[in-house]
Amino acid sequence: MENLLVKLMLLAALTQLGISVHEFQNCHSRGCMQMIEMKSRDILNIHWKPLTVFPAESKKFR
Prior knowledge:
This protein is mainly α. It has one domain (about 1-60). Helices cover about 70% and strands about 0% of the residues. The chain has four helices and no strands. The chain has helices at about 1-15, 20-25, 30-45, 55-60. It is elongated, with a radius of gyration of 17 Å. The termini are far apart. The mean pLDDT is about 75.
């Protein structure tokens, strides 16, 4: 029963992203995974920014 619930949750999440199960199963490249990540960010309307843990160290790399 739990297995069926997890499958339904995954199917619902993919449907929200506009991705079919077939496309998800054939997604093995980095570009494809980035496309899925971008679609998920577009749905959530969250524009993530990198977190600076050590501000002094990050200034060296700018």
